[in-house]
Amino acid sequence: MLEITLLRLQAFGVRDVIVNVHHFAGMIVDYLKANDNFGMHVEISREEVLLDTGGGLKKASWFFGSNPDEPFILHNVDVITTIDLHRMADFHVRNRALATLAVQDRKTSRYLLFDEAGRLCGKSPTPDSRFQSLGFSGLHVVSPRLLSMMGDDEVFSITACYLDLASRGERILAFRADEYEWKDMGRPENFTATPHAGGVPGN
After folding, report:
1. Which residues is 123 bridged to in the sheet?
2. Which residues share a beta bridge with 20?
3. pLDDT number for residue 188
4. What's the distance, CA 87 to chain centroid?
5. pLDDT digits (tens, 9 = 90+) for 18-56
6. Are 83 and 73 in contact (CB under 8 A)?
7. Nearest 5°: CA angle at 12, between 77 and 190?
8. Does domain 2-197 have CATH number 3.30.499.10?
9. What average pLDDT does the segment 177-182 reach?
10. What pLDDT was estimated at residue 67?
11. Tens of pLDDT along 58-69?
């Protein structure tokens, strides 16, 4: 999964990557070394204690300081998708978003709720007819200024952070990715299913 993700990022022109590691960290580092980091500049962020999705990003924030104006991609490694990263990044920049989240109209156990303008405004375990109720696809484009807004906690969810910032007027936007294939490989049942656009349970 890590190889698939790295090669996909590389195909979109990404050359500098930081990888969060915890379980079997040594094996992952050895694997990267054995493959010469797949021709990329790869740094490692070791989490001795799991920091959740927000805490992990905060710990790795030093990596993104070289260009405070250039957005970066945050990609879950257990996701396989054909989402067009160039198109998503262009959407993010054009709309001056703090963070842009790839979402699909599909069943999920955790819906993110967006208003008619595509701004994040809540979350729910079930669809809410007052909003666009969408499944998050584990792919974000993030402006580096987010990193200074993340608070003092060490362990926290990036979704909780987004919801807090959205409630204060920050632009956390939906990038509709319904036409792209997507599969959550963190679910055993998806190993035998063919990925397709929308309709894939998970996340």
Report:
1. 112
2. 45
3. 61
4. 15
5. 999 999 999 999 999 999 999 999 999 999 999 999 999
6. no
7. 35
8. no
9. 94
10. 75
11. 999 999 976 778
> Which residue matches tokens 């699909």?
104
63 and 43 in contact (C-beta within 8 Å)? yes
CB 99 within 8 A of CB 174: no
Token couple for 85: 């990263």
Predicted confidence (pLDDT) at residue 202 exceeds the cutoff of 60: no
Separation CA 142–CA 133 (nearest Å)? 21
Alpha-carbon span 176 to 171, nearest angstrom:
15
The pair of three-digit structure tokens given for residue 22, joined into one six-digit string = 């915890």
* Parallel, antiparallel or unpaired: strands 111-114 and 181-184: unpaired
* Token pair 């584990």: residue: 138
Do 64 and 147 contact (CB within 8 A), yes or no? yes
Residue in this structure with the two tokens 């490692």, named with its chain if needed: 44
Looking up tokens 């999705």 gives: 53
